[in-house]
Fold these 2 entries.
Entry 1:
Amino acid sequence: MTTRAGFIALIGEPNAGKSTLLNRMVGAKVSIVTHKVQTTRARIRGVAMEGESQLVFVDTPGLFLPRRRLDRAMVAAAWGGAADADVVVLLVEAHRGITEGVERILAGLEDMGKGRCVALAINKIDRVQSEALLGLTEALNARFDFAQTFMISAEKGYGVEDLRRWLAEQMPEGPWLYPEDQIADLPMRMIAAEITREKLTLRLHQELPYQLTVETESWEEREDGSARIDQIIYVARDGHKGIILGKKGETIKAVSKAAREELEEFLGRRVHLFCQIKVRPGWLEEAARYSEMGLDFKDGNG
Ligand SMILES: Nc1nc2c(ncn2[C@@H]2O[C@H](COP(=O)(O)OP(=O)(O)OP(=O)(O)O)[C@@H](O)[C@H]2O)c(=O)[nH]1
Ligand SMILES: [Mg+2]
């Protein structure tokens, strides 16, 4: 049997459903998902097997017009993921169609040059009438030379099998890149930090989720089989600390509980999770914070 293996970058506007698709392909939640834009911050790899093909999916941050250093580093990571991939899958939201943001991404794909295999996945088809999809498919294919078009719902799973089978055929021949049973290529400490960041993002309003970062400070394996995990939530302002704590510490308590429960399910054992909030006005300009997130600090230079 000839084996195949390669990288597939999932790109698109923030909120297009890239992380949802990655998780569905992998069959486990390795990348966090929220209803808010700019959830994913770094490239996250998930591994799936399809017959003799190994598909390494690269989830990327959404592509948008960056303003801050963090935004620029995120967008650079996304384009970097696309440049390194064997196949690029562009996700476009069915109900939003060709937005300004999609136009900008198409221009970026043109700039990447010909010869790259780019597929189109119109996502969230569960949200529209099927008649609307034909027009959108035609309009997008008139704008860019896609190798193939798929209509999917990453959330409901529609069309995902077809996409996976097609991707498997596109992978170059070669040995598998990861052990057959590996599903993610992300340190556990980072997955743990991401889970806490997801719970914070789901609970906090407006800009606050974009002004914080979570790091796993220590991870201790205990004799009784449980793990003690200590995390730091960095915020930029004193007032933010109060909001995250909540009345009588209720907010942070609820966040830690939700994160701990998910971690326990993921790890299949007991977890003791301790989250501490630190006010650090300059964290968005600190190189160490970026490497913890898996981003290149220099990419954020304006
Ligand atoms: N109705 C519907 N919602 C979806 C579908 N796929 C994803 N979503 C929702 O869209 C929202 C964003 O999904 P994500 O997977 O976090 O999107 P993303 O592209 O990774 O977003 P960023 O990381 O911010 O760039 C979540 O609320 C998902 O549940 C789908 O097929 N149908
Ligand atoms: Mg994402």
Entry 2:
Amino acid sequence: MAELTPQEFLDKVLKPEKESDHICWDCKHLKPVIEGSKFPPADLIGYCMKIHWPFFWGVADFNVVKKCYAFESKKVAK
Ligand code: SF4
């Protein structure tokens, strides 16, 4: 069995609450709302930690991000 990177491990154990077309899912700056979480507003898929730093930007479900100047892939070459 192949070893997981830290990011792959997090993706496996922290399942997001939603699925959508956001490019943010593949971006290392998104902290997704975790499955079963009751705290955040229902329209959020997660929080971007890059845009508006040092504040978090709530990424809304209804306003799909298709392109982003600050996108950085969370996939690392093996
Ligand atoms: S940097 Fe851009 S692509 Fe990455 S999570 Fe933030 S808004 Fe989404």
